[in-house]
Amino acid sequence: MTGTQPKHGIIPWPPVIYVVAIILSVVLGMLYPLPWIGDIFGDILVGAGWVALFGVAALWVTAIRTMVRAKTTLNPNAEPDHLVTSGPFGITRNPMYLANTSLLIGVSFITGIAWFLLFAFLAAFATQKLAIEKEEKMLAAKFGKKYRDYAKRVRRWI
Do residues 149 and 63 lie in contact, with contact meaning Cβ atoms separated by under 8 Å? Predict the structure, then answer.
């Protein structure tokens, strides 16, 4: 990389952010439980939560498989070798981060711990600010027009 191209940081922020969100959700759920609408929509929310978790598994597996087939890195701090635009990357530019956020939402629906839902959105926001925006600059610098065309065609999240 030259001095004009953005560089990745040392800390792999996305996994750290989501692990912290999970820990805080569990601890706050035990210490300060928030009201939940589970009494009214309990079975529907639990079902939706399981659907979300199956979606998480599908996103993780297909995204990892697509990246391995493209022979690019899975490390969020490493510079990718290739621009991946197929598979789940044809629907969202960040399927792994979307899966992590969906994981928190699904767990919230299943367990009734509202903190997971709150931290899902906070983790997504933090991931965007600490990782995604830097990744996008790096991808634009490395892949140029090809990345910019892809970014116009495929949404960042969903």
Answer: no
Average pLDDT over residues 39-65: 93
Among 71, 131, 69, which residue's Cα sits nearest to residue 101? 131
For the chain, report the end-to-end CA distance as a whole number of angstroms: 30
Q: Which of 82, 96, 97 has the alpha carbon at shortest distance from 146? A: 82
Q: Which amino acid is at 92?
A: T
Give pLDDT, residue 25: 97
Q: What is the pLDDT of residues 82-115, one digit of tens each?
A: 999 999 999 999 999 999 999 999 999 999 999 9
**Residue count (the chain):** 158
Distances in whole angstroms, Cα of residue 60 to Cα of each of 10, 35, 44, 65, 66: 23, 31, 24, 8, 10
Checking 145-152 for CB contacts under 8 A at 24+ apart, the result is: 146/83, 147/83, 150/83, 150/85, 150/93, 151/93
Cβ contact 96:59 at 8 Å: yes
Q: What is the pTM for the complete model shown?
A: 0.88
With H, G, I as helix, E, B as strand and everything else as coil, classify residue 70: coil
